What we know:
The protein is an alpha+beta fold. It contains three helices and four strands; from the N terminus they run βαββααβ.
Amino acid sequence: MAYFAVQYVYSNDAELVARVRPDHRSYLRTLVEAGTLKASGPYVGVQRDSALLVFSADDADQVRALIAQDPMSLNNVLESFTVTQWNPLLGVFAS
Length: 95
């Protein structure tokens, strides 16, 4: 398993983001319970509504498949996202 840092940038349509957010968070909870999502949360004090998610997965394609099922993706709320493999050397994610 590897770690992947994912950055979400949400639509500028704040009403749409707010409407989809409860389903999005419910979906993320299922990923936490499955052990795939290790951490997630919004950036604070940034100009654009965005978030960081940390996944544990076999490869980036597996992460992209999970993102594709996120209500934020299914409802076209994500303006963009990036998936980057991450190698934590120290701290709670280090092995």
